[in-house]
């Protein structure tokens, strides 16, 4: 009987959905990042981030979801009385959200593209904007037609370095310049000096009825429309943000936590080890604080708790991979990917005092991190770290060599360790440029290697013993990373694109990528991947031609580093949206996506019978923890192996049978609620 048309269409639709799967997928963080602004409107909570776009939460910050402008810095979000959203971006102006969820640029009349603040006056329906400018450019603009046209409103301001334009409940406008407070009572047509703040104002305002609050070195209050100001509380810290609840409770963000002003009493509310970039209240009992690097925090029932679930706006400086161990660093934290949950776990309590620039994994699994004050070392997966070695030196790159030696590049010198990072000694003469990359290349001579060193003014080359120090050239090229393909070809990501060397670094030729390239890696087939300032590209022709790989699911084009893991998946570190990972191994680029089954499918091992090793292939319906078990004919388990499958579809295990006796075995593969069993024969 012929299948029905509905069944055929359904089958076609399911296959189409699977085939349309993008190449990239978010690796769930690390969660956190720089939260620069908040907006609470219409029961929704919005967060603007530095480099990570805008996020939205529909459950009071318990879960966040990417909203718009991924990869961009969102300085401000505002809403009008119709619920229409406006955003101000770094370098890209103002956008207005339409009823069909599309966005329209809305900054005609504003000449400068960086918008620091937007605010709306419900009384007049005017929009106000603060833009970045220099001494000869107006800072404030007004739109009377929902952002279609803007006009400058700066008459009466004594300085163009003004900030913090804010609308009071009575429609008055306030702003700050140095220690002066200005006010406009006619919607910005004219400004007048009305008061002065000790030590200057930071341009942050909050309003409760006719009471006005602002902050500088401490917090101040005015009850006469800004003409006189009195200090509230006894703290004198720099104020970075303010937020006020409907009941008048004031929250003040500083470099050292959040203060609360309530019933004429100033108290430290919490987060004393965090700087606070932004604050918003959600009713009288809930508040949110945005931090640099550590994401969002939520105040509820008197306690501040992390509230960054889904807020994957972290800027990742580096990734380190060895086997199935995957680490990354963001801000001052080291994270490890937990295979069972596919979530990032912070590992670095003692490393948070350092800014981490680069990481590497030693031959015995030790972690090494380059900081602004030396190399630190961990022997327990990043939980505890040593004091800095190569003290007082900024470490820009760390490389491991085939023989187990380690190399660290400082601003002008390479250091080498021959005892697994316990001690370091200078390895070469000083360079004129800052050392940014090191690669150790095997030669045809046993126990001999060549060290290629990329700097900000060209490339150097030497033998592994430190002799024959040679400057190769390429002045004017800043080298970011050097890598070797599986075909023995060297590639370098540089400030002008990608270079290639066919003679172990003696000579280099530019390749047809003309944008800064920060990272280059190769898979086992010789395919080259390059992270540029304009996305990710790959080449299967040794760099002669390149294809774009960044548009399929990669939300952020600001990729700073690439790594390929043990199973040939490609990992990308972005500045603003965390880590991304390819859906399939890198040998699947431009290959058809395999069908994803409804349940686990276990295939016959190959070869079978086998002698030393055999491959067991299977297909997963969804990602998860996968366990392989081998049983002899008595039912006794003789072998077990567990791994994390990061994606659905075809996977495999390699079975090493050298320690097993010849005979018949049963192998079982299980993942979650799925399992399957088959037979295989080992011959010896």
Question: Topology, pairings included?
Answer:
Layout: H1 5-19, E1 24-26, E2 32-33, E3 35-41, E4 44-49, E5 53-57, E6 65-68, E7 74-79, E8 85-89, E9 93-97, E10 103-105, E11 115-121, E12 126-131, E13 140-143, E14 151-152, E15 163-167, E16 173-177, E17 180-184, E18 192-196, E19 205-208, E20 211-216, E21 218-222, E22 230-232, E23 239-244, E24 250-254, E25 257-262, E26 265-270, E27 278-282, E28 286-290, E29 296-300, E30 303-306, E31 312-313, E32 316-322, E33 325-330, E34 333-338, E35 343-346, E36 356-361, E37 367-371, E38 374-378, E39 397-400, E40 406-409, E41 414-417, E42 425-426, E43 435-442, E44 449-455, E45 458-463, E46 470-473, E47 479-484, E48 490-494, E49 497-501, E50 509-510, E51 517-522, E52 528-532, E53 535-539, E54 547-548, E55 559-564, E56 570-574, E57 579-582, E58 601-602, E59 613-620, E60 624-631, E61 637-645, E62 649-656, E63 663-671, E64 674-682
Parallel strand pairs: 2-31
Antiparallel strand pairs: 1-57, 3-4, 4-5, 5-6, 7-8, 8-9, 9-10, 11-12, 12-13, 13-14, 15-16, 16-17, 17-18, 19-20, 20-21, 21-22, 23-24, 24-25, 25-26, 27-28, 28-29, 29-30, 32-33, 33-34, 34-35, 36-37, 37-38, 39-40, 40-41, 41-42, 43-44, 44-45, 45-46, 47-48, 48-49, 49-50, 51-52, 52-53, 53-54, 55-56, ...
Class from helix and strand fractions: mainly beta
> In order across it, which strands form the biggest sheet?
1-57-56-55
Give the distance, in angstroms, between the N- and C-terminal Cα atoms: 50 Å
Shape: globular
Portion in helices: under 10%
Mean pLDDT: 85
* Uncertain stretches: 1-20, 589-595
Biggest sheet details = 4 strands, antiparallel
Helix count equals 1
Q: Strand-residue fraction?
A: over 45%
What's the total number of strands? 64
Radius of gyration from the alpha-carbon trace, in angstroms: 29 Å
């Amino acid at each position: 009987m012929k299948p029905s048309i509905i069944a055929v269409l359904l089958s076609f639709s399911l296959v189409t959905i699977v085939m349309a799967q993008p190449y990239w997928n978010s690796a769930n963080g690390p969660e956190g990042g720089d939260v620069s602004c908040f907006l609470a409107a219409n029961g929704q909570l919005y967060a603007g981030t530095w480099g990570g776009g805008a996020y939205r939460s529909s459950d009071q910050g318990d879960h966040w979801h990417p909203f718009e402008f991924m990869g961009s810095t969102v300085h401000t979000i505002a809403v009008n009385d119709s619920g229409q959203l406006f955003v101000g971006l770094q370098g890209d102006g103002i956008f207005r959200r339409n009823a069909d969820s599309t966005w329209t640029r809305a900054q005609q009349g504003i000449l400068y593209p960086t918008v620091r603040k937007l605010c709306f006056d419900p009384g007049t329906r005017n929009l106000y904007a603060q833009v970045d400018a220099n001494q000869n450019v107006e800072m404030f603009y007004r739109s009377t037609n929902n952002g279609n046209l803007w006009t400058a409103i700066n008459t009466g301001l004594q300085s163009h370095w003004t900030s913090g334009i804010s609308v009071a409940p009575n429609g008055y406008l306030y702003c700050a310049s140095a220690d002066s407070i200005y006010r406009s009572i006619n919607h910005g047509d004219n400004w007048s000096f009305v008061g002065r703040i000790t030590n200057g104002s930071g341009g942050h305002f909050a309003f409760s009825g006719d009471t006005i609050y602002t902050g500088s070195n401490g917090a101040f209050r005015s009850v006469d429309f800004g003409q006189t100001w009195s200090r509230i509380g006894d703290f004198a810290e720099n104020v970075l943000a303010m937020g006020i609840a409907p009941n008048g409770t004031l929250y003040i963000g500083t470099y050292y936590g959040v203060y609360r002003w309530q019933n004429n009493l100033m108290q430290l509310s919490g987060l004393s080890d965090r700087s606070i970039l932004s604050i918003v209240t959600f009713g009288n009992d809930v508040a949110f604080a945005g931090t640099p690097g550590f994401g969002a925090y939520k105040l509820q029932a008197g306690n501040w708790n992390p509230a960054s679930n889904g807020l994957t706006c972290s800027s990742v400086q580096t990734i380190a991979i060895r086997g199935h161990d995957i680490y990354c660093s963001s801000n001052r934290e080291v994270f490890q990917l937990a295979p069972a949950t596919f979530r990032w776990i912070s590992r670095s309590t003692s490393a948070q005092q350092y800014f981490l620039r680069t990481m590497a994994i030693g031959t015995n699994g030790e972690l090494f991190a380059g900081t602004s004050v030396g190399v630190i070392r961990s022997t327990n997966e990043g939980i505890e770290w040593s004091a800095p070695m190569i003290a007082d030196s900024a470490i820009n790159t760390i490389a491991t060599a085939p023989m187990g030696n380690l190399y660290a590049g400082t601003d002008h010198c390479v250091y080498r360790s021959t005892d697994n990072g316990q001690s370091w000694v200078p390895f070469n003469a000083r360079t004129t440029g800052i050392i940014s990359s090191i690669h150790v290349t095997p030669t045809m001579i046993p126990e001999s290697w060549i060290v290629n060193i990329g700097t900000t003014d060209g490339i150097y080359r030497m033998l592994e013993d430190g002799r024959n120090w040679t400057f190769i050239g390429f002045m004017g090229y800043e080298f970011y990373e050097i890598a070797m393909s599986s075909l023995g070809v060297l590639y370098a990501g540089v400030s002008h694109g990608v270079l290639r060397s066919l003679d172990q670094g003696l000579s280099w030729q530019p390749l047809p990528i003309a944008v800064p390239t920060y990272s280059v890696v190769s898979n086992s087939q010789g395919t080259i991947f390059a992270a540029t300032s304009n996305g990710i590209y790959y080449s299967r022709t040794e760099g002669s031609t390149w294809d774009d790989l960044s548009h399929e699911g990669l939300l952020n084009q600001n990729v700073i580093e690439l790594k390929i893991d043990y199973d040939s998946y490609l990992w990308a570190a972005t500045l603003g949206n965390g880590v991304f990972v390819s859906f399939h191994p890198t040998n699947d680029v431009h290959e058809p996506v395999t069908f994803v089954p409804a349940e686990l499918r276990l295939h016959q091992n190959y070869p079978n019978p086998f002698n030393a090793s055999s491959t067991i292939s299977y297909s997963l319906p969804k990602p998860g923890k996968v366990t392989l078990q081998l049983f002899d004919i008595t039912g006794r388990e003789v072998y077990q192996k567990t791994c994390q499958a990061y994606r659905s579809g075809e996977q495999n295990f390699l079975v090493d049978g050298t320690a097993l006796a010849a005979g018949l075995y049963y192998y079982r593969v299980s993942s979650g609620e799925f399992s399957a069993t088959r037979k295989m024969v080992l011959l010896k």
